[in-house]
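Recap quiz, item 2
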Amino acid sequence: QKEVEQNSGPLSVPEGAIASLNCTYSDRGSQSFFWYRQYSGKSPELIMSIYSNGDKEDGRFTAQLNKASQYVSLLIRDSQPSDSATYLCAVNSDDYKLSFGAGTTVTVRA
Amino acid sequence: GAGVSQSPSNKVTEKGKDVELRCDPISGHTALYWYRQSLGQGLEFLIYFQGNSAPDKSGLPSDRFSAERTGGSVSTLTIQRTQQEDSAVYLCASSLTTIPNYGYTFGSGTRLTVV
């Protein structure tokens, strides 16, 4: 069983603050890592992917990967009310499936 | 098409009836996946299709569930003799390559309610 664990949340942050989401995974052979955003009642939308150790920045989003610690995180800088959603961590190991965490719900307070 | 298309968007059925859910993947995407998301739960893998290869059915929860993909494109997920625990959002996704280095693109889902 390839497990992906996320902070259970919910995470409430004030507008303009940094939201930090964490994810750990059990399969040391995992190669690709993704963050999806899911608004209530909608399907997941891919927002970030990362494959190498270190940081990857895209606009207000930064993904961080540490394969030695089996840890991947997502930072949302200058959080906006439109960032309020559930964020899903997904991990691809040596096959074709993505394993998903249960998600962390983020609420940005105006 | 421009995105992954699923139909119907909502389905209410009586316990014991059969249902069919349809997925039309993005044109050119060779890999197609079905996932299930129950209320407040994560995504549960159901089945995977890749080209003409035998599908990976390892996630199907019981023999009441089956799926097919015709002509390497449209897929149908069939649930026979539906039970209340089958109520969930069924999500279809497609990806460009066998190994999803680019992640999946999800359809809008079918919300199934068994009453």
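The CA atoms of residues 21 and 74 of chain A lie 5 Å apart.
The first strand of chain A starts at residue 4 and ends at 6.
End of item.
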